[in-house]
Structures are given as structure tokens and as C-alpha cells.
Design a protein that fits this description.
This protein is of the alpha/beta class. The chain has one domain: Response regulator (Rossmann fold), CATH 3.40.50.2300. 49% of the residues lie in helices and 18% in strands. Strands 2-1-3-4-5 form a five-stranded parallel β-sheet, sandwiched between helices. Strand 1, helix 1 and strand 2 form a beta-alpha-beta unit. Helix 2 packs parallel to helix 3. The longest helix has 17 residues. It is globular and about 35 Å long. It starts with a strand and ends with a helix.
Length: 125
Amino acid sequence: MNTILVIDDNTDYRTSFREVLEMENYKALEAENGQIGLQMIQSYRPDIILCDVEMPVMNGMDVLKKVKADPTLAKIPFVIISGQNDRELVQTAYDLGAEAYLTKPLPIKELLAVIVRFLQARTIS
């Protein structure tokens, strides 16, 4: 069973994502801020990370930097899910190594398609 970590300070988003992921037979983990998320990434080594940008304690871009700087974590697909669609922010996320940038609110089908794409790519490589 593939594990997906959802890092978001919004409880409603985390819960919604977790419920959808579990209905699709994924193991879903939740973290309410970047610092807890980073600890969970190091402990659980999820198959995919879904991460918000604006959060207390540690923001999503800082989590992304730390994950991509660690050779043992860098290959985990990192998907930014944010309410912000600023072109510069999107470019920064890609420059730091994000594999995808999705804007909230997003259709669940789009989220699931991205997850399937990354899991299939990991299986092939």
C-alpha cells in the first residue's frame, strides 16, 4: 500500500484529502505544519508528499528545500498544493525541485491523476 503524506495547516483540507486517499486504498498520513511534516517524512519515507505553502512553524518551501537537499529523501515526489497561484511562487517551487504545483481548490480527479502518474513513474524507474 502506497503512503501519502498530507502537510497542511487547514484541518478541513487535511481531513478531506485523507478521506479521499483512503477511499482510493492509499495509506494517508497527516501533519499540521512543515516541521512536523519534515519529521514524518524522515520517519515514514512516504511515496508522495502533498504540501501546502503557507503554514506556521515551517512553510512548504522550506520543507521542499530540506527534502530535496537530503539525498535519502530527494527522490520522493513533492507536490505543492496551495491557494496561491502567483507565477513567481510557482516558478520558485519548480526551481526548488517540486514535481507538481496544484492550486486549491482542486478537483479530486486532478489530484488522483497526479498521484497515479508519480506512482507509476516510480514503479517504472
